[in-house]
Amino acid sequence: MSTLAQEFSKGLLKENPTFRLLLGMCPTLAITTSAFFGFGMGVSVFFVLLCSNIVISVIRNFVPDKVRMPAYILVIATFVTITDMVLNAFVPELHKALGIFIPLIVVNCIIMGRAEAFARKNNVIRSILDALGMGVGVTMSLTLVGIIRELFGAGSIFGYNIMGTAFEPMGVLATPPGAFITLGILLGLFNYAFKRLGIE
Amino acid sequence: MDRKLVVSSSPHIKSPETIRSIMIDVLVALFPVALMAVFLFGFRALATMIIAMVAAMATEAIILRRKNLFGDGSAAVTGLLLAMTLPPAPPWWVVVIGSVVAIGVGKHIYGGLGNNIFNPALVGRAVLFVSWSTHVAGNVWIKPVPFGFTADAVTQASPLVTYDASLGDLFIGTVSGALGETSALALIIGAIWLFYRGHIDWRIPGSFIGIVFILGLFDGGLYMGLYHVLAGGVMLGALFMATDMVTSPVTPAGKLIFGLGCGIVTMAIRMFGGMPEGVTFGILLMNGLTPLIDNMTLPKKFGEVKKSA
Amino acid sequence: MRESGLRMALTLLIIGAICGGLLSMVNGFTAPVIEERAMTEFLQALEGFFPEVEDYEAQEIGDEVFYYCTDNSGNFIGVVGQVKADGYGGKISYDLAVNNSGDIIGMRISSHGETPGIGDVITREEFQSRVIGLNYADPISPGVDVDTVSGATISTGGMLSSIRRVMDIIGENFMTN
Q: Is residue B5 part of a domain?
């Protein structure tokens, strides 16, 4: 049995959902045109993941195995809808930008994956730590992709101009092919780094 | 390396052909094209070509941790081909980024020479085109001034926008355009060398240029047919880009299909698309289909019985 | 633990009920905020369509609301409809502004669930410019005087048939006087 600290830290690097487990690729590619959007998506996923992990871990002993999937979907969909409504009310710009991808968090593989693979089998404390680690991992990853694409694709980070006025943005990074190229290069770098550091 | 290749005892027949010798042949073939570019666009064209080649070779040398800058010569070819697709005098950093992307993303990410799916030079050009279209397309086409090596640059629209150049000018190359694409004459001279050395096959350029001509006929008779073949990047693309050994099919039927596909996509973009030129994306698209085409056109083995469907 | 059908159904029912309750609680809290913001945005858009607007009067026709706009001397200057179209991903809510001679002068998509990169072409200039300038006497029929966008036929076609319907309502109710 791994220690509590490990439950948290594994999501950051070793089992990073985006770069190691390759889960939730659709929002990773689609909405990370800027650091803010990547961060917003990451936080939304984080919130849903944390809530659903807690609830699923709590109800894991009461829900019959045969209906666990519909039960999980109910729980996850509830939190996603709450996120959707809260964002719409208080962060409208982000809500507009993320658009259809917020409701689609319901089918985000990270959340179903953690529910099925972890929260279902572990107690609440461990599930919370798992969700915290995975959530921070997702948020960091999406923000990182967003930062890179925004920095080179628009010359700014979180909307602040970094590159100066003489910089001519590399438009391809703001387009979907740019998302694939960025993610591909990052995956390669992470694999290389992990190999070098001797992590798996 | 796996030692799966079983080698019989000597003597062996050794082909004198190496990657390096092929690449040098390509460079020789590109020489008349480069010469024509300098003749038409002046020393700024030479500078663009040198920057592109040096940047490409340096990128490759760094990635492979190689001391020898020239190496097998493939990076030099990629750099020069990239320069050929660029306007005569883009900002130097655009050329450098194009070369770095061509070699880094277009070639070495896939595992280096022989493993790349897409033509590296065209990957570089596509990225430049999408990112900085103001520098590599649009109002950047310098009016050619033969022998005016240091003449002032005057820009004019591409003949693919105006459709008013004469066929003679298009053939000789005294029209505006990318460095290596204006002169059909120089490209044909270069290609003859490659044909002579056996490095390219007639099928890809033949079907590519043929279909462009035929579709051009529908766009306005014989004149437009020839215009579509001679203007823009069709000659350069068909003779030097689409024939790249790594990224085009190996079977004879596959080569014909590949050339047809390149030509059809090119003409579809020219006639119906939002961009004036479509050679880059035509070839890149067909590059992606190359493994499928190869699979589809595998020759039947002798004695093989057709599987029932 | 015996897993009877009744027990499964009960479990799901309980979870469903709790989730539903939670959602309606949050909705009760956020809905007014969202509505208020939507109204401010709409009023901004309305002033964008008719800069000289002084007063407006809301009129409910069917389940849609039309704003009858007048300038400072009380003259009728146009109508803005807060209307809905059937899209590919559910209802598309949009505002359609029509001036006093029956020409479409502006439109604004306020919410939609169309596919990003395909159906959301309706929010962009290239589609909207095809619609702006049309009169309620025009056919506004796909392929006749307005083209749909290929690949987004359902989204754009749905918009067009909805605009036709809205223009009929406007023509009937506002253009007589």
A: no
d(C-alpha C175, C-alpha C28), whole Å: 39
The residue-averaged pLDDT of A33-53 equals 90
Angle (nearest 5°) at CA B235 between B229 and B238: 110
| Cα C97 from Cα C82, distance rounded (Å) | 9
Rounded average pLDDT over C10-16: 90
Does residue A112 lie within any of the structural domains?
yes
Q: Average the pLDDT over A117-129 and give the result.
A: 90
pLDDT above 50 for A5:
yes
Q: Cβ separation of C15 and A65 shorter than 8 Å?
A: no
The whole domain housing A50 covers: 4-143
For residue C57, give both structure tokens: 């009067």
pLDDT over 80 at C135, yes or no: yes
With CB atoms and an 8 Å threshold, state whether A175 touches B97.
Answer: no
Specify if A97 maps to a domain. Answer: yes
User: How many separate domains does chain B show?
Assistant: 1
State pLDDT tens for residues B225-260: 888 888 888 999 999 999 988 899 999 999 999 999
Q: In this complex, which of B97, B109, B131 lies closest to A171 when CB atoms are compared?
A: B131
On the question of pLDDT at B1 being above 50, the answer is: no
Strand ranges, E, within C32-75? 55-61, 64-70
Strands across the sheet containing C90-99: C55-61, C64-70, C76-87, C90-99, C104-111
The pLDDT mean for chain C works out to: 84
Q: Which two tokens stand for residue A137?
A: 């991992």
Tell me if A172 and B130 make a contact (CB, 8 A cut-off). yes
Q: A170 to chain B, minimum CA–CA distance in Å?
A: 5
pLDDT score at B190: 92
Residue C177 has pLDDT above 60, yes or no: no
pLDDT at position B287 over 80 = yes
CA distance A27 to A99: 11
**Interchain contact, B109 vs A185, CB within 8 Å:** yes
Residue C135 gets which letter from DSSP?
B
Tell me the two tokens of residue C113.
């669930």
Higher pLDDT, B82 or B169: B82
Residue of C4, C11, C109 for testing the chain A interface, max A β-carbons within 10 Å: C11
Assigned domain for A101 exists: yes
Does residue B8 fall inside a structural domain?
Answer: no
Q: Is B195 within a domain? A: yes
pLDDT at C21: 93
Angle, helices B120-131 vs B74-84, to 10°: value is 40
Q: Does residue B305 fall inside a structural domain?
A: no
What interface predicted TM-score (ipTM) does this complex get? Answer: 0.75
A171 in a structural domain: no
Residues of C in contact with A77 (CB under 8 A): 19
Taking the whole predicted model, whether its pTM rises above 0.95 is answered as: no
